[in-house]
Amino acid sequence: MTTAARLVAALCLAFLAFIGSRYIMTRLMPETTAFGIFLWLNVLLGLTAGWRVLGTRVGRGMANGISAGITATAMLVLWGVLAQAIYEMFRLAMRHRYEGPAEAFVAIFKLGLDFAAHLLDGGFIGLMVLGAVLSGALAELASRNWR
């Protein structure tokens, strides 16, 4: 069911995904990196995580809303790393870099670990935690004020 809390949660996490993606693009990766659909895929994942994860878990108190915001942000980062690893695996598979499907499947996890290693940056982690707390609080406030 469509609620104001779900809409606010989706917009907050989409904005957080946009800001986080721009941080990664400008501060964590080399300037010569071609990002392709990186930014917009992460924004779409942010909308989805906000709507499906955060938006359904608010309305039970501010502490629970903040906790749900942290959970939804963690899911957003996990989905983002996984989606980018799958995309990169397919890109490499089209260039015949793998011997077979099993090697390509294992490569998803290797690529995901490589991508996750880039995210172990204090600024990025701080940005995500702050965004998670604010997103959870705003979604909780929307749940209280607009029914």
Q: Quick gist of this model?
A:
This protein is mostly helical. It contains 5 helices and no strands. This is Tellurium resistance protein.
What this model shows, in words?
With 147 residues, this protein is an all-alpha fold. The protein has one domain (4-145). The chain has five helices and no strands. It has helices at residues 4-28, 38-54, 62-93, 101-118, 122-145. Helix 2 runs antiparallel to helix 3 and helix 3 crosses helix 5. It is elongated. This is Tellurium resistance protein. Keywords: Membrane, Transmembrane, Transmembrane helix. The chain crosses the membrane at residues 32-54, 66-87, 123-142. It comes from Alloyangia mangrovi. InterPro entries: TrgA.
Provide the fold topology.
Blueprint: H1 4-28, H2 38-54, H3 62-93, H4 101-118, H5 122-145
Helix pairs in contact: 1-2, 1-5, 2-3, 3-4, 3-5
Low-confidence segments, ≥5 residues, pLDDT <50? none
Structural class: mainly alpha
Largest sheet: none
How far is the N terminus from the C terminus?
12 Å
**What is the beta-strand fraction?**
under 5%
Oligomer: single chain
Count the DSSP helices: 5
The total strand number stands at 0
How many independent structural domains?
Answer: 1
Residues in helix, %: over 70%
Cα shape: elongated
Order of helices and strands: HHHHH
User: What is the CA-atom radius of gyration, in angstroms?
Assistant: 17 Å
Mean residue pLDDT: 95
